[in-house]
Structures
1.
Amino acid sequence: MDSQNIYILGIESSCDDTSASVLRNGRILSNVVAGQTVHKEYGGVVPELASRAHQQNIVPVVHQALKKAGIDKSQLNAIAFTRGPGLMGSLLVGTSFAKSMAMGLGIPLIEVNHMQAHILAHFIDEPGFDKPEFPFLAMTISGGHTQIVRVNGYFDLEILGETIDDAVGEAFDKSGKILGLGYPAGPEIDKRAKLGNPKAYKFSKPKVDGLNFSFSGLKTGILYFIQDETKKNPHFIQENLNDICASIQHTIIEILMDKIKLASKQTGITQIAIGGGVSANSGIREALKNGEETYGWKTFIPKFEYTTDNAAMIAIVGYLKYLEKDFAKVSVVASARLRF
């Protein structure tokens, strides 16, 4: 084995993307992601189809990641995998594969919490990207999760607030469904929002105490609004789609920004990092950047490819755990509702 370098293979299979990544000492050598288009026609991820697709994809994806990294599997020091949270069937594929490969190579196995990985993706050595200093606030926003986390150290994380119903990604997708947009709707709403007036329509923001979020009321409000307007004018959606998208996105961003502002005020922490698939949204990125001037924040936005589900973020957590010799037992099991 190469004594100078530590090579970690990361495997991510929590939802509908099969991903493998090879990392050397904090630097990503490869990050391969195989998506699944099969879910588009269903308007959401079908768990049974997702796990079947993972079974087909995992061997070629891992093979490709090793090939792109230019290393042989015998050079690996450890294998890190997503233990949870996520879809159980999908998690089982990655967990079983990681276990058998680690056993076959006689190297350590490292379990990773998917939500923690979204946050620690900021510590990948990536030219042109700064790393936050402890303590910082992380806002993880994705299709399945919305959280504000106080990060005191790599493995000292405290959830300050989270959604009590839908995640922010669901709010985008369900709003898109109401408007007849395809799945996932987030990128399409973002694109159209740039062409519309964010103040065209006003949607009420849910009132939730503290740092918790709620998005189900907003979704219902949008549904009733669209139903009412369509009764008056059957072509309402087509004629005003960009304005509707801009107004929905503006409301969602305001909900997120209100909470992160409150968290910063309460904790006195001005280092703000975002992660998760929805952090790819241009409006959210812009609002955070504006916060630097308005509130004196220092904001950290990960490289685009590390925002959605990917194995690079699993590999960096694997590397940090490897340095601590924090290894998993072979008896470790996947957990759909894994907490920090």
Note: Residues 7-122+307-323 form a domain with the Nucleotidyltransferase; domain 5 fold (CATH 3.30.420.40).
2.
Amino acid sequence: MSFLRAFKYRRKDTAVHRLDPRSKFLLSTILMAVSIVFTDIRVLLALVFGQIILLSLAESLREWLSSLRGLLFFFAVIFATQLLFGGTLYTGFILSLRLLALSSSMSWFFLSSTPEDIGRAMSVAGLPIELTFSFTMAIRFIPVIYDEFQSIYDTQRSRGLELEKGGFRNRIRNLMPVLIPLLVGTIRRTYEIADAMEVRAFGASPKRTTFKPLRLKSGDYLVCAASAILVALAAYLKLLGIE
């Protein structure tokens, strides 16, 4: 579950962190779409390299590299399925590279955007407050669940539970003493949040105000222009027959 670290916000004072979440989300969505559309190794490598630059500007490259360990399992599954069903190592490499580009396209966005800013951006877009709140809470829950999983995992190991012995089936069975407390704790936390929302009269007023309104700045316009250029470049590559 270490790949969840790529979706935990880190408070830093960088040019990427200061951007409006709407412009960052636009660029992130376009990068994700290009990663899905293309399978050419040159395009995918360019996408990964560009996102490494974004992560470096956000000073979040170390967190991103740490989260890649969680993707090793998925890379292994991709290579195994390709070899078992008539694929090649090259195809497995391309699909793994695409997965890396896809995960990175949202990683730098979540690492540099607070859940509050994302919620404000969704509210400005006219989305219902219930949907906005649910999405924001989901973002907050991801790192919390990971931290709680790691805490329960370390606690069970300190008590002598051997979680890494045996085959794949035994390891899954050994995880039950970790997953059950994690599930119970998650359900208990959702009830606490629901009670807190009810006490604060959530949804009583249909019109909500915000303490920190969102405003596009010069850097945001540059990001939007870069997004438009990326879309035009992707369309041009498609016209050239590059897949």
Note: The longest helix spans residues 129-158.
3.
Amino acid sequence: MPVISTNNAANAALNYLNLNAAQETNKLSQLASGSRIVQASDDAAGLAIGTQLNANVAVFQQDSVNIAQGTSILQSTDGALAQISNVLQRMMSLATSAASGQVTNIQRSQDINTEYKQLSAEITSIVESTTYAGQALLTGSFLSNVKFLVGTLSSNFISLSLATVSAAGLGLTAGLSGSTVSTAALALQAMGQVSSAINIITKDRALVGAYESQFNFSGQDISSNIQNISAAASVIMDADVAQVKASLSANDVKTQASVAALTQAAQLPQELLKLLQS
């Protein structure tokens, strides 16, 4: 029914114009942000799931840093143990030489034993200088039971525990059987003690290697989790640019049509007035 006081056609056109303009604004926001969910009302359930997935990715990324730090600690520890192993091998060579009958007691005490004791002191120096961020790695309690988080739960961790290392613990300090090679008899005792020390260090290095292997596999698993979870979150949260652009084009056409319709509807009362003039 054509009326003058209320322009129903204009109201309808205006309603669709507002609706199409809002949809066009939303599509533009998606393109600008790269996100399918610009506000919670776009997809409340998707927002909740996507946010949780992104949180898991953030945790795994920090886990990756934890793994890298743990690997660095283990590499520093292994490097120090390797140097101690080299020192022990030289000490074994000196003890073997001192135990031989062609060496005089003067040569043993003044030459061989002097170097032997200096090498024992070098073990102490290596132990004391091996640190990570100010924490001693071969002594103290830092590596007695340190835990590295490698998952999203408090139970997902690698517990690292290494025995302390010292010249005294290896039986190479004053008063112990491996402390001197000043005589052939003491040199024989020292050979046995150094051999035992080499076995201890070898076992420690094997344990460090096992931990490194565990860290490496855990790091690979974390990288895989980051990739897969990021992909899952992308499906939910990221905008499909091609689809959004297509929808934007359609909304743009509808908006233009609404403007044209509103313009036409605004002229309708003027057309009705012509009836009164006839």
Note: The chain has two domains: 8-34+239-277, 57-236.
